[in-house]
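Cross-check.
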Amino acid sequence: MPPLEAMACGCPVIASNSSSIPEVCGTAAFYFDPNNSTSLLTVLKDLANNNEIAYNLRTQGFKQAKLYDWSKSAQIIYNILTIDSGSTDETVTIAAKNGSDGFEGRLC
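Predicted model, tokenized:
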């Protein structure tokens, strides 16, 4: 996820306001309309000319990046893939082995 990697490195992020990017980046990115070149130009100019915007994006970016943890995500996926397939309970609770927060969901 390049936007999150950039945030974790302290780079202000300019991102498209389409697909799942706003969901991942939250308020920690400066968004533009990918169908409007003027929108991108405006965001680039605003960021280049306003140190406060850049500072705020860096600060928010560090916080946003911390919401995503590769180890935790890998453990959750591992747990999903290794659940006893003989279970008759449609709802399962999956908790990472390290004691982090669990995920409750339905298996199809």
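Confidence is low (pLDDT under 50) at residues 95-100, 103-108. The chain has five helices and four strands. Passed to J.P. for a second look.
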